[in-house]
Amino acid sequence: MALERLGLDWESWSECGQEHLARYQFASQYVRGARVLDIACGAGYGSWILAQSGAVSVLGVDRDAGTVEGAARHFVHPRLRFECVAAEALQGGELFDAVVSFETIEHVPDPKGFIGVLRRSLKPGGTLVLSSPNPLLHSKAPGAEPNPYHLEEPSHDQLMEWLRPHFSEFEQHGQFRTFYGTTYEEARMAALVRSRLLRSVLALEGWVRGLTGQPPMEQPIVGNRMRSGRQILPLPPHLRDRCENFLIVAR
Question: Domain total for the chain?
Answer without folding.
Answer: 1
